[in-house]
Specification:
Helix content is about 25%, strand content about 25%. Helix 6 links the parallel strand 6 and strand 7.
């Protein structure tokens, strides 16, 4: 079984005029002329972080509510990557947040989470009760994908100030649209956790692109296991490389004849996604069966090529004016968990 999104007819492809600034971004940061700064430390003590924030003159401490505490990755009883732990470490490290409440269907998990990060944070087994009673400013949604939509919708309708949700956004396009619409309608900032752009190989590749190392960018290619769970990272990276330029058109196809699920969500066995950005750069993502392109990401410019590898060397460069590949030294790889702290 396959699905195909057709290229729009010429009359529908005309570039629309600039839209007015929306009250809510979809979750991507805007273009930045410089590589993102990496914090020097991550502190995991809530009281210490909040006290430091106050010493620095921060008047507002934001109250964070976490939905889906889980267990740390690879620990006993873990059913996922334990992303809530990464979320809350980042919040606390700002010195402007405190853990106010945790909702988890496992009270044992919630208690362990509060003991590690929250001290006196309230514990709930029902996230709706947490939203109604604890009234957090910021909500992190760290559950499996099929639960993202109802939880984000509930948090938006509770008019929290911001929601940071794990990727992928939702199981269906319809759910994703409703999540965005609810956030816009309620004036809520809605973001998603694409932390890989904070790993050094991607940062350095973007820096080299901006410096003209391969000339003007023409094409971005990527390969991974599936478009839904892993591919969402690579599509985020495509936009990162290309300064968040919107797509003009998209065509894609999937093969999902055999059932396969990741964290309960169905994924395909093979897929292809081809699109054009509004600045004429092309994107190509192929996933699944026999999808190897020899690297994770490839950036093709008018004057050379860069590749981000699945293993060391993580980044290499070939210029048209030089013979062979040049390895580019970076401080970490594309899988390094330090990206969570930097994000």
């Amino acid at each position: 079984m396959s699905r195909l999104r057709q290229r729009p007819p010429p009359s529908a492809r005309a570039r629309p005029p600039e839209a007015p600034t929306a009250p809510l971004p979809l979750g991507r940061a805007g273009p930045s002329p410089k590589p993102l700064a990496f914090p020097r430390r991550i502190c995991h003590n809530a009281a210490k972080d909040c006290a430091e924030g106050r010493r620095q003159g921060v008047s507002t401490i934001y109250r964070v509510g976490v939905i889906g505490a889980g267990r740390p990755w690879k620990s006993e009883g873990a059913t996922g990557f334990g992303m809530a732990h990464h979320h809350v470490k980042g919040f606390l490290a700002t010195g402007r947040c405190e853990l106010a409440a945790v909702a988890d269907i496992s009270r044992k998990n919630a208690e362990a989470f509060v003991q590690q990060y929250g001290g006196r944070a309230a514990i709930y087994e029902d996230y709706r009760a947490m939203l109604a009673e604890a009234k957090p400013d910021i909500v992190s949604v760290c559950t499996w994908p099929h639960l993202h939509a109802p939880m984000v919708l509930a948090a938006a309708e509770a008019r929290v100030r911001a929601i940071h949700c794990e990727k992928p956004m939702a199981v269906t396009w319809g759910e994703a649209r409703r999540m965005h619409q609810a956030a816009v309608a309620n004036g809520v900032m809605l973001t998603f956790n694409h932390q890989r752009r904070f790993n050094a190989p991607f940062q350095k590749a973007r820096e080299l692109l901006a410096d003209g190392a391969v000339g003007p960018l023409l094409r971005i290619e990527g390969q991974c296991d599936n478009i839904y769970d892993w591919g969402t990272h690579w599509l985020d990276m495509f936009f990162f490389y290309n300064n968040e330029t919107p797509a003009e058109w998209v065509i894609g196809q999937i093969d999902a004849r055999e059932e396969k699920r990741i964290f309960g969500a169905p994924v395909e066995q093979q897929s292809i996604c081809h699109f054009k950005f509004q600045n004429e750069v092309r994107g190509l993502l192929i996933c699944g069966f026999e999808a190897s392109i020899g690297c994770a990401n490839r950036l093709i410019g008018q004057e050379g090529v860069m590749e981000i590898g699945w293993q060391s060397p993580w980044l290499r460069l070939r210029r048209d004016t030089a013979a062979g590949w040049q390895e580019v030294e970076v401080t970490d790889g594309i899988h390094d968990p330090v990206a969570h702290d930097r994000a």
